[in-house]
Amino acid sequence: MVSNASLIYAKPPHGAPVPGETIKRVVDDNFDPETVALNGGILVQAKALSMDPYMRGRMRDPKVKSYNQPFPLDKPLLTLAVGVVVRSEYDGIKPGQIFKGMFDMSEYAVVPAQLVKMGRTIENKEELPWSTLLGACGMPGATAWCGLYDIGKPKKGETIFVSAASGAVGQIVGQLAKREGLFTIGSAGSDDKVAFLKEIGYDVAFNYKTTSTEEVLEQHQLDIYWDNVGGATLDAALKNFRHHGRIIACGAISEYNVPEAERRGIKNCKSDMNVVTHSLRYQGFIVSNHNQDQFNAEMPQLVKSGEVKIKEHVTKGIDNGESFLDMLEGRNFGKAVIVFE
Amino acid sequence: MVSNASLIYAKPPHGAPVPGETIKRVVDDNFDPETVALNGGILVQAKALSMDPYMRGRMRDPKVKSYNQPFPLDKPLLTLAVGVVVRSEYDGIKPGQIFKGMFDMSEYAVVPAQLVKMGRTIENKEELPWSTLLGACGMPGATAWCGLYDIGKPKKGETIFVSAASGAVGQIVGQLAKREGLFTIGSAGSDDKVAFLKEIGYDVAFNYKTTSTEEVLEQHQLDIYWDNVGGATLDAALKNFRHHGRIIACGAISEYNVPEAERRGIKNCKSDMNVVTHSLRYQGFIVSNHNQDQFNAEMPQLVKSGEVKIKEHVTKGIDNGESFLDMLEGRNFGKAVIVFE
């Protein structure tokens, strides 16, 4: 018998999730790794659990449709994670292997066969930290790669603006864009984060809490805007585009925690006819629909060699959801991950 | 000497243009077609003058940037038009030819050389009415053609929704889409217009003033939305898309007359993450940047043969701007044109 802590989804939040209430730590003191039923799946001991903004979207009333399923109540949150296989009833997977895929936010998790099938075992030849396998070399890194190349189609000499630029995705976008010869502008929410943006090569970096995004962008003409935040920032970007600009719609974190009726909306999108008059393309994508072979082949080495620098926000062990809320509200600095020793 | 009536741009409107005040009819009683200076341009006698929603955008404070120039004050509105050449100082253009291009909203207009260069003489082999040369076979028709094929990329079996579907552009979009094997849904603002939509082959047609757009669209899954109106209609469409849907951003007539601070904005675009979660592409275009050769080659015959049906809203002669305001506020029924006997 071991104790097994999980982060449980207790009820849909109205605005922001409330640690200890809508999400909370629950410990099973009678978890038996030797005998727990696997039903054709595998048992993993978690090494790292990813915390990502999109997860807020699954904390919803099941009646609201979306691209993903709502989280079931009173179960652990499900997330992208890496762990070491303890037992397996799944063909081709053996104890000791590293499994990367979706599983419960728990110290020990039973991964049902259909989720095992969607994940994979990895070798981690570059010996990157567990957290990095979920960050720069995981879903956020792949999002940056596929979004920039497949949707943004960057050309040397163009200008890109990235919001939430020090975040898990933004920090990779800026560095990839720089490698392609773009002029890069990034915004973030603290002076520390701005210093980091300069360190990783952003040409212009500013703290949107102390500097007006509108005033900074007025001095530039954008070809690409990587939109992580939506709302007023997107509106400001829309006013400063060159013709044939592209907006990569990656997220709208400024509005995730805002109930529908109170949302600000986008006012410059059609109102000022900017999308029409500048022939803009505003396009969303889901990274899992994109081919990630090139990313998987190149990114680990770029990180290992230091050509792409990364910043991670690592929490040790499962808490009551405070670190998840920090991530949603921007108090993390870099990719937010829970790790276990 | 003849009298020469013009529609003059007198001052920028705050909301809607005011006939007789911000735009008004002015008559020059001493216009001499024989002696008026051409300075290398041509003199035309107008046969038809186009009235289009985008012209509202040129009635603005010159300090506000856009893709086109603001109209100069105290001059006639400039528009796409056809006329017969009376005199010419421009190489290759002779009296009696039909000229199609931008010129003043006047009975007689001097077209300066740089505008002559951007226009062209036409033969009108199909002997279409003057008005049609500005409608289905003019800019609105080309907008429908290039927007649908180049931006919408329609595939047989898909579903398209067109707002302002009985308008100059919408009526062509629906018929072209139907020819490509799409299921077509159109909205318009009166029962007469809805009857016309059914007559020209729309599979579903409804009056958005008496039927809820949201309720109609909930019964369908869209692949393409041709957006002529923006605002709440765009929001309703955004909730009912299949994955990889396309929104052709053609206009936002619901917000042209609304001052910036009072605009509604788009709330479902990023807020509900629809653009992201459904991998939507929302794209604007300017028809003059698109190749129109195929349109020019095929459209006149489609109209002549009746394969594409058209509806025009014809006003005889220049008024005080009432017909222009009618067009902006949807009281026209089909392409709005001023014609002269």
Automatic annotation (TrEMBL), chains A, B:
This is Enoyl reductase (ER) domain-containing protein. Keywords: Oxidoreductase. SUPFAM superfamilies: GroES-like, NAD(P)-binding Rossmann-fold domains. It comes from Rhodotorula taiwanensis. It comes from the Eukaryota. Residues 20-338 form the Enoyl reductase (ER) domain. Pfam families: ADH_N_2 (PF16884), ADH_zinc_N (PF00107). One of its GO terms (molecular function) is oxidoreductase activity, acting on the CH-CH group of donors, NAD or NADP as acceptor. InterPro entries: ADH-like_C (IPR013149), ADH_N_2 (IPR041694), ER (IPR020843), GroES-like_sf (IPR011032), MDR_fam (IPR045010), NAD(P)-bd_dom_sf (IPR036291).
